[in-house]
Design brief:
The protein has about 240 residues and is mostly helical. Helices cover about 55% and strands about 10% of the residues.
């Protein structure tokens, strides 16, 4: 599609959620990262519901002896197929809406890249260093770094950290996402320093001139495109 420039909207999307039962847990969670990303763009209620369901699954799985883990995971997914089906359908509606409104990525569709500028840099470094990181795991880490960047950016602009008012226990969106992603079983710690990602991000497909269009979450349901140089990102995330 990207190489040929041939883009057509589908007439329908067919999904068979039972196929999820065939996935190893790690691959399942890679998809979870993309689902949560979608709900962060649009769908705060669905985001909260997804975290609730996924936390329950993670909690159930965590108490199973290691020798029984693989078999139990299949049963765990099967038991939650009805809730997962509803969430999958909701995520598809969000993405289909964004894509149909902005077919050629002139504006809103760029939000679907939330977490991906960092994720692509993480994947590149992982390949260079022989680390085993899936795309979904890199997206999970990338979303959290994007949230930290949003907090730092808002603070520098005098708006204070990006506070998510829906959760009184967390002062920033980044801290809430850390807790949510961890509860779902997603990786939250990036093995690479942000400083090592800067040159890679400078060559990202979303770069133009000396700026990169970063997709930053300021709250669940409030994602914005902010143009920053990689030097600004390095300064705002110094120490990360």
């Amino acid at each position: 599609k990207n190489m040929l420039g041939v883009i057509r909207q589908p007439e329908f999307v067919y999904v068979c959620p039972r196929v999820l039962e065939s996935l190893p847990r790690r691959d399942f969670l890679s998809g979870v990262a993309e689902m949560l990303k979608t709900f962060m763009i649009q769908g705060a209620e669905d985001y909260a519901k997804a975290v609730e369901v996924l936390f329950e699954m993670h909690k159930e799985y965590s108490i199973v002896p290691e020798e029984d883990a693989s078999e139990y995971w299949t049963d765990c997914v099967g038991a939650h197929v009805p809730e997962l089906t509803s969430l999958i359908a909701a995520a598809i509606r969000v993405k289909a809406g964004v894509v149909s409104r902005d077919q050629f990525e002139g504006g809103e569709r760029r939000k679907l890249n939330l977490g991906h500028t960092f994720a692509h840099a993480i994947e590149t470094l992982a390949k260079r260093k022989g680390n085993d990181i899936t795309h979904g795991e890199a997206v999970s880490m990338g979303i959290l770094l994007a949230a930290e960047l949003a907090d730092a950016y808002a603070l520098e602009k005098g708006e204070g950290p990006s506070v998510d008012a829906s959760n009184d226990f967390m002062n920033t969106l980044a801290s809430r996402l850390d807790a949510d992603f961890l509860a779902c079983g997603l990786p939250i710690g990036c093995p690479f320093r942000v400083s090592s990602m800067l040159d890679i991000m400078r060559k990202d497909k979303k770069a133009y001139g000396d700026k990169v269009r970063f997709v930053l979450p300021f709250a669940v349901g409030d994602v914005r495109i902010v143009e920053l140089s990689v030097e600004e990102v390095g300064r705002l995330l110094a120490g990360k």
